[in-house]
Amino acid sequence: MSRLPVSASKRALSSSSSENGQDFGPAQKKICKDRETVKPRAAATIVGGRRPAVGPTKAPISRPVRAGGAATVAVGPSRGVLKQTVASTVPKAGVGGATKRQPWDLKGKVSDMEGKVRNFQTKIKSVNQENEVLKDTVVQSHTKVVEMEKTLARQRNQISEYEKELQALLGVRDKLEKVSGDKSLLEKELSNLEGKYKVMETLRDSQETELQTLKMKLSVQESALARLQTTLTNTEEEVSRLKDTVVQQKDELHAGEMERRRLHNTIQELKGNIRVFCRVRPLVEGGLSKHIQLPASDNKTITLAKTEESHTGKTSDTQKNYNFNFDRVFGPQASQHEVFEEISLLVQSALDGYNVCCFAYGQTGSGKTYTMEGSEYDDYRGVIPRAVKQIFRAAEKLGAQGWEFTFTASFVEIYNETLRDLLFTGKASKRPEHEIRKSTNNEVTITNLTYQKVSSEDQVLGLIMLANQNRSTAQTAQNDRSSRSHSVFQLDIEGVNVGRDVKCKSTLCLVDLAGSERMLKSQSQGERFKEMTAINGSLSNLGIVISALANKESYVPYRNSKLTYLLQGCLGGNSKTLMFVNIAPEPDSFGETLNSLRFASKVNDCVIGTASANRK
Ligand SMILES: Nc1ncnc2c1ncn2[C@@H]1O[C@H](COP(=O)(O)OP(=O)(O)OP(=O)(O)O)[C@@H](O)[C@H]1O
């Protein structure tokens, strides 16, 4: 039998049956009573929280169970209950069929059939009731489903909101993590800063202590300063007095300096504006040969003694003496220092504004270069380096009196009447030619020559070395060239005393002449002859010029040789001249020595006019 809800016709059948209640009698009433009692029993089943033991109830009843709740429980009476109810209403004998009707017992059979019909009707009723209950349950369940869907939708909305919130919270968490990272960094920094702060505090404390100490010192020094200021005021007054004195003394000093120059010059004039010193070189093995005699008591005389053998042998050998007097004669033992002492006064004159010329004359190997240049070792330095040293030292001292000096150096060689710049540093192929020029104010200059400004002794010594290199290069090309050429070192000196408006200008000229030995014309040829002619010409012209100056002749043949032309400014009226005559002591040099001494003696006899300083 179907448990689906009973169709309307069946329900009508059932209700009609019910309306015709008399068909069922008390049994029908019992069923109705049962229906009233069903609900409380179903409710009792709910209390247990378990599905009621209704037995084979199928889909229509069981579906609402999914929702759980009271609807599921209010299923209505179980079939067991119904069966029990029906069974109790049907008389056992008729229904059970235990007793088989006789074929003829039609009445009995009808009665059984009626009993069966009643049973079925009761069942139908019960099912209908059950269906009603189920319908209610379905409606309730549906309502609940709708509510639950709404709830579900709300909850979904809520969940999505929660999810959004969660997303937002995740962002917050990231930020929080970052902030916590920053925080730990800041904490570290803070701890560093705290450490530094502590150090600073310690430092501050120590500095405060130091400050206190300094304040104390300051107050002590302030009182000292006050005392010093008083002293300073007194000292300033004293200084001002002293300054006046210094100015006065400077004036006196300047006057004294001018007086010194005047007296110095007077002494030089008294000594003669041209002086001749004789210097005798030692023999190679040391000492002196017999033919040269230097009286011990006197350092101004030299005697050349010549022994002439008797030709006949009957008479004894005769000795002929040649005596010469000079301003000074230096023996073979004389040191470079001793020699320079004698001419240092002349060097001083150069700074005072007088032209000074110093030259060495003598045969080859007699010691001219040794006298003028010497060697690089201090004790053996010659006239040129010593003069330079003296000049720079004296200039420095005069600086304290307001003098300022400028120095210009040049170094020239005269070989075969040709000029050669010994300070030239360019290529040999580009060596320029030189000419001597005389300006309108009688100043002699050489074209294309190196005029080097110098301000120290070392600088000049460097130039002398350069000149020697240039000379030795030429020497390699021609043997003994240096012996056959004149070398002229010139230092132009310009001084100015700005405060006193005084100027001076002079030239110190130091000359190493070519060897003066004479050669027989028959012995010299070609270049040698030319050289000899040039040397002899220039040296003899030097003698002629000095002699002309001494005799105050109207014409002085300066231009007859390059040497005298170049030395024009340093010879004559406005200059002081010193000549070294160098002597070789070997007996075989006797002739040349005699010639040299004779030449020097002539020069020594000359008195060249009175020198006047080049002052403006
Ligand atoms: N007074 C002296 N004391 C010691 N040695 C000297 C003296 N004079 C010269 N001599 C030495 O004699 C040698 C020749 O001297 P020096 O070269 O100066 O002669 P010189 O006249 O310049 O010759 P030259 O004309 O060839 O240049 C050198 O070795 C030098 O050192």
Descriptive key words:
three-stranded antiparallel beta sheet; 14 helices; disordered N terminus; 14 strands; alpha/beta; binds adenosine-5'-triphosphate; Kinesin; nine-stranded mixed beta sheet; 15% strand; single chain; 54% helix; 616 residues
Report on this model:
Keywords: ATP-binding, Coiled coil, Cytoplasm, Cytoskeleton, Microtubule, Motor protein, Nucleotide-binding. Residues 1-39 are annotated as: Disordered. Residues 273-606 form the Kinesin motor domain. It is found in: Cytoplasm, Cytoskeleton. It is a single chain. The protein folds into two domains: 8-156, no CATH class; 272-605, 3-Layer(aba) Sandwich (Kinesin), CATH 3.40.850. It contains 14 helices and 14 strands. The protein has helices spanning 8-19, 26-47, 59-62, 69-73, 79-89, 92-96, 106-271, 336-351, 368-372, 383-399, 457-477, 526-550, 562-566, 590-605; strands at 274-280, 292-293, 301-308, 318-325, 328-330, 355-362, 403-415, 418-421, 436-438, 444-446, 452-454, 486-497, 502-512, 575-583. The strands form three sheets. Strands 1, 5, 6, 7, 8, 11, 12, 13 and 14 form a nine-stranded mixed β-sheet that branches. The chain has a three-stranded antiparallel β-sheet with strand order 2-3-4, covered by helices on one side. The chain starts with 7 loop residues before the first helix and ends in an 11-residue tail after the last helix. The model is unreliable at 1-97 (pLDDT under 50). Bound molecules: adenosine-5'-triphosphate. Adenosine-5'-triphosphate (ATP) binds at residues 281-282, 362, 364-370, 482-483, 515, 582. Adenosine-5'-triphosphate binds next to helix 9.
